[in-house]
Amino acid sequence: MTAIRLLLVDDDPLVRAGLSFMMGGADDIEIVGEASDGGEVETLVDRTRPDVVLMDIRMPAVDGLTATERLRAREDAPQVVVLTTFHADEQVLRALRAGAAGFVLKDTPPAEILAAVRRVAAGDPVLSPTVTRQLMRHAVGTAPDTRRTRARDRMAALNDREREVAVAVGRGLSNAEIATGLFMSVATVKTHVSRILAKLDLNNRVQIALLAYDAGLLEEDLEGEQEGH
């Protein structure tokens, strides 16, 4: 089994040491490098070729948001998981829009951080439906009309079936759940998701969910959920 190559980025040496100790003890994970600032990331990525970057979002010189945007703009970019102390934060949303595959809280139990890295390395996002909805509720009222117009213009590139799949992804459903709900095979769902990513020039399912929200396609779900509380 090939080990997952992991780069750790955090300005706190104690946090890095703790993460290195915790992650390095797993048989399927190899720590290939550490950085104390976002400005070091691209050079280290070129040198170490990680599969996943565990990225602190708040650093004094170049923050994790900027570093994530720079990384995800590159060809063959590694996956990025953002480290944060906040459940719902505008910077987290910006990092996800930039292409981060998800985020974990710094006080997350070690086993869950390991699981998140493994999922991202396998091509799966690390946002549960609950967390996805929480982030979207946090963004309610913050998206300007121009963002909605742009999102709707982009979604217009999809056919009806792809649009249905995009909305289902936005609801946080798995491929198996989408297949059941839309009466198609899991393989067909995967094909639709791949086409949506290509047509909309997106990196991952998280970005599909955020774009569907921006276009106003998930508001009924969110409003119904809020009324139920």
From TrEMBL:
Keywords: DNA-binding, Phosphoprotein, Transcription, Transcription regulation. Residues 5-121 form the Response regulatory domain. It holds the Pfam family GerE. InterPro entries: CheY-like_superfamily (IPR011006), NreC/VraR/RcsB-like_REC (IPR058245), Sig_transdc_resp-reg_C-effctor (IPR016032), Sig_transdc_resp-reg_receiver (IPR001789), Tscrpt_reg_LuxR_C (IPR000792), WalR-like (IPR039420). The keyword DNA-binding applies. Residues 151-216 form the HTH luxR-type domain. One of its GO terms (molecular function) is DNA binding. The modification 4-aspartylphosphate is found at residue 56. GO terms for biological process: phosphorelay signal transduction system; regulation of DNA-templated transcription. The keyword Transcription regulation applies. PANTHER family: TRANSCRIPTIONAL REGULATORY PROTEIN NARL-RELATED, TWO-COMPONENT RESPONSE REGULATOR. This is Response regulator transcription factor.
